[in-house]
Amino acid sequence: MAEHPELVAEMPAVARLSTPERLKHAQKRRAQQLKKWAQAEKEPQGSKVGAERKRRKRSDGNAKRVTFPASVQLLEAAARHDAEEVQHFLDSGISPDLCNEDGLTALHQCCIDDAGKVVPVLLDAGADVNARDSELWTPLHAAATCGHLHLVQLLIQRGADLLATNSDGNMPYDLCEDELTLDCLESAMAEQGITQEKIEEARGATEREMMAEIRQLVEAGADLDAPRGHGATLLHITAANGYAEAAELLLEHQASLSSRDEDGWQPLHAAACWGQVQMVELLVAHGADLNGKSVLDETPLDVCGDEEVRAKLLELKHKHEAVMRSHHRHKSLLQRRTSSAGSRGKVVRRVSVSERSSLYRREHEREAIVWQRAARRDSGDDDDDGQTDAELRRRAAAADPPAPSPPRNGSALCPHGPGTGATVHPVPDPAPRHHLPATLPDLKRHRAATKLQHLPGGDAATPVGRGDAGDAGGTGGTGGTGDGTGEPPLLKLTAPAEEPPAQKQRCCKVM
Fold first, then answer.
1. Are 504 and 497 in contact (CB under 8 A)?
2. Is 0.90 topped by the overall pTM?
C-alpha cells in the first residue's frame, strides 16, 4: 500500500486522467491496499506491538492532541441527549448559555431534538429560557415549531415569553402547526391576559426602538450609513425586517440606497431575499438599483426566493425600463430641438413681426380702395350718418338760391347753365392713385369734412374752386361755379387736399 506522501504527490497526475482511467487507477490502489492489509494480518501480534512502540518513540515529544471549545462539547453532549455528561460539564463550571456561531444554545438544541431529560438539567443550572439566536428565535419558538407539547408546557412554567418575536416578526403561536400545542399556547396567553392590542404592540416594539435610535442619531448628526454587524447599515436591517416606518424615516434623512454589506448586498437585496414586498416597492420608489450586483454578481432578482416578491420585482423592472426608454426619447428630442434652434429662431420671430405689420398695412390700403370704388360707382349711397347725397343737396338748396345741379367729381361747371354754349373744361382728378387716403379712418374724416361744407351756416359758404387746392378742408380740384354762386360739389372718398397732385390726369383715367 502506498504511503500518504506518495498518494498526495500523484494527485495532480490523477486529476488529468479521464473518468475511466481514474476509475481503473482507484481500483488498482484499492487492490494494493487490500493486499497490504492481508499481509499485515498474517504477521504475529508481537511484531505489531513492536511496531507500535517504535512509532511512539518516533513521535515522543511531538504528540498532538485535538481539543474542542467548551461550547462545542456542551452542545455535542446535549445533541446526544447525554444528561449525565451535560451535568458533568455544568458542574465543571461551563456556562449553560454558551452558543455556537449561529447563536444556538444547548437549550435551543434540546428543544429542537426533544431532549426531555436534558432540558430540566439546563434550566436548573440557570440557562436563559428566553435566549435568542442570530435570528431572534427563543427555545419556545423551537419547541412550538416542532410541536413538542411537554417542552412547551415546561418552558411556559419556567417563564418563557409568549410574545417574543423573531426576526420575521413571528411569535411562538404564529409558528405552531400542532393543534394541541397551539391550544396550550393560546390558553396560556389567555391566562396571562394577553389581548390583540398587546400582541400588536409587541410586534411593533422592535421597530419603535429602532426609530427611537434613528431619531437620536439624527439629532446627534451621526452617520446613518455607518456599517454594523457584517457591514450592514440601518437601512439593510429595516429592509430585511420589513420595518417600513423606520425605512421611511431613514430615507427622509438621506440614508444611502447603494450602501453595501460585506457580501456586496444593497438594501434592496436584503428586502428581496427576505420577501419584504412593501420594502421592495418603497426602495424602488426612492431610486434603488434593480440591477445592482453583489460580490457574486447577484442582482436582487437572483437572491429572491419568494414568488410574490419575484413577480413584483419583474413588474417594477419592466416599468422602470419603459420609463427610462421614454425619458431617453424625450431627452434626444429636446437635444435635437436645441441644436436646430440657435440664432435662426430669433430671425424667424423678427421676420414674423415684420410680415404682420406689412400685412395689416396692405389690408388697410385694400379696404380704402374698395370704399373709394364703391363711392364712385354710386354717389347716392348712404353716408356714415345715414344721409344720402340727394338729401344733403336738398338741404343746401333750401338754404341758398337754386343753382345748377353739381356735376360729378372731376367735371366742369358752366356758369350760365346748360344750353348757353359755354365751353366745358374738364377738371382733372385732384390726386393720383398713390396719394389716396391709406386707411378707413382717414376716409371717414375726409367725408365728414366734406359734409360740413354743404351744411347751412357752415364754412362751406365759400365755394371751393380749382385754384383752392391748398385750403384747409378743400378738395383741390373738384371745382364749383365760376362766380361762387354754385353749390360746391360733394367729394366722395378722395385724397386729402394737403398734398398737391404730382401730375394732372383726366377723370377717365382715375379708376
1. no
2. no
Phi and psi angles of residue 99, each rounded to the nearest 5 degrees, phi first: -135, 165
Residue 61 maps to a domain: no
- Count Cβ atoms below 10 Å from residue 469 Cβ, excluding itself: 19
290 belongs to a structural domain: yes
In a domain, 48, yes or no: no
Same domain, residue pair 231 and 257: yes
Do 198 and 226 belong to one domain?
no
Query: Do both 141 and 256 map to the same domain?
Result: no
Residues 369 and 274 both lie in one domain: no
Do residues 82 and 18 share a domain?
no
CA 270 – CA 167 distance, rounded (Å): 13
Same domain (yes/no): 231, 82:
no
In a domain, 27, yes or no: yes
pLDDT band at 424 (very low <50, low <70, confident <90, very high): very low
Phi, psi values for residue 323, rounded to 5°:
-65, -40
| Residue where one domain finishes, among candidates 175, 203, 231 | 203
Q: Name, in order, each residue with C-beta under 8 angstroms of 66's C-beta and a sequence gap of 6 or more.
A: none
* Residue of 291, 227, 215 lying closest to 263 (CA atoms): 227
Identify whether the C-beta of residue 230 lies closer than 8 Å to the C-beta of residue 192. no
Residues 320-336 as b/e (b if ≥16 CB within 10 A, e otherwise) read eeeeeeeeeeeeeeeee
Chain segment 91-109, per-residue pLDDT in tens:
998 999 999 888 999 999 9
Other CB atoms closer than 10 Å to residue 178's CB: what's the count? 16
Q: Is 360 helix (H, G, I), strand (E, B) or coil?
A: helix
Q: Are residues 300 and 368 in the same domain?
A: no
Q: What is the spatial distance between Cα 315 and Cα 449, in angstroms, rounded to a whole number?
A: 83
Q: Are 478 and 488 in contact (CB under 8 A)?
A: yes
Task: Give the domain range for residue 259.
Answer: 221-323
pLDDT digits (tens, 9 = 90+) for 3-17: 777 877 888 888 888
Measured between alpha carbons, how far is 244 from 207 in angstroms, rounded to an integer? 9
- Predicted local confidence at residue 491, as pLDDT: 45
Verify that 178 and 225 share a domain, yes or no.
no
pLDDT digits (tens, 9 = 90+) for 33-83: 888 888 877 766 555 556 666 666 555 555 567 788 888 889 899 988 999
**Cα–Cα nearest to 95, from 84, 109, 105:** 105
